[in-house]
Amino acid sequence: MSAVSPRTRLGLEILAAGAGVGVAGDALLRAVPWGLNALLCTTGLVAAAAWLVRRHRVAASSDAPWLAAAALLIASNFVARDSRTLHAFDTIGLVIVLAVAFPSIQGVGLRGRQAWHYVRAGCDAAVSAWLGVFPLVSRDVTWSELSRGGRLRQVRAVALGGALAFPLLVVFGGLFSSADAVFHDVVADVFAIDFDAVLKHIVLFGIFATLSTGYLRGALLRTAPSQTLTDGDSKLSLGIIPVATALGLVNLLFLFFVVIQLRYLFGGVELIAAATGLTYAEYARRGFFELVTASGLVLPLLTGADWVLRNESREHQRTFRQLAIVLLLLLAVVMASALARMRLYVGAFGLSEIRVYSTAFMLYLAGVFAWFAWTTLRGQRPRFAFGALVQGFAVLGGLHLVNPDALIVRTNLARPPAERPFDGWYAASLGADAVPLLLEALPRLDRSAQCAVAAGLLKQRDRLEHDDWRNWNFARARARRLLRDQWTRLHADACPKARRRSG
């Protein structure tokens, strides 16, 4: 294979690595919910990329090793927790890490990049993952070079001979099957194929192999952008007057809302009841998610305004920063209002998944806005995007440490039953992380909650018994062991109606 060019050799090895990841993805990831299989497949992809980078001396940036470690750390979360929602965020986190690793393998550093650089990297990685296999096969690998290598030439000749023999084997095999019943039965037994299952395997293999091959091709074979990306790549600028007018009007709207909040939400139960006819908790419940959405929209508003004013004079940029600081101060009151609403909401109705993750998102936004003020509004714009990305992964790690499913059950169990009955069905429908707490609390629950929890845990036991080694994780293994030990007690506690519902 000495006559094969380095580009063709790298292309062939990318195809081989992609095929390997495709086989692993088809064999492992079809078992859901994901657990050990997600970690193994991520390890395979990271190992393949690291091997290719090292073997071909690709000049990756210094960020590539810690991004690889971050991908493995996030994938290990699938082995620790059983929360389906948390696993969805882990999947998103993995996609983001792979997206930002895409330019780092090409030698582009991540620090000092603007937010839109990360967006561009994600788009490039997605396009390359889905379409990169086609230029790899048609252009990057020079197939004519393979005939010069002795071993590859023999493999190619054998493959050609097999392709020529296939129709002959079908014709002669059909004739022999018709001529001899015993031969027909033997062939039918040997080639008894479930074509639906074969098709599913081919589709899954094709998807995982295509995505991994295209991603590796784009990261290893595609040339990185020749010029350094800077703020001055585009001359688009609106000027200070329209931007200041827009921000000023937004500030007025926020100020008006803040005045209302200071009077009513922080004013007491009597004011709320007199003005709206709602209880304090109902008033809080109606507005939290709207305030989360409004808070989330402020970030693209400010970053976009900062970008279109990047070429303006220092005086104009100072005006923008003053307006942005006012908006951030008003936003702090709005976010405090949202968190106060959530506290009242949870006090009246208990904790749930959407309330946990919405609160985590609000805390993340608070950190990002503080970082925006510390960097962008102080003239250090290049530091903002990387810090916001790191904060996002920190919040994801914090959620794993908090263990949302266990937190929900613990919080709801701590509430007096007289205020709101414990929702046993909802608690038992959470992941395996909630099982130890529910089993411990079961004797203390009232009969109705006992019935619902026991029936729900029986249903969860049936689900866990269908697991195999591919979707193994610590939480499910522990819950499966505990539920097996407590099966007799659970079956006795589950009332007949609830037991039929669980079955």
Task: Give your account of this protein's structure.
The chain has 503 residues and is mainly α. The chain folds into 4 domains: 6-143 and 197-220, no CATH class; 147-193, no CATH class; 238-402, no CATH class; 413-502, no CATH class. It has 22 helices and no strands. It has helices spanning 6-28, 36-55, 64-80, 84-105, 115-131, 133-140, 150-179, 181-190, 195-220, 240-263, 269-276, 280-308, 314-349, 353-375, 384-402, 404-414, 424-429, 435-441, 447-464, 474-485, 487-493, 496-502. Helix 3 packs antiparallel against helix 4 and helix 4 crosses helix 9. The longest helix has 36 residues, at 314-349. The chain is flat, with a radius of gyration of 30 Å. The termini are far apart. The model is unreliable at 226-233 (pLDDT under 50).
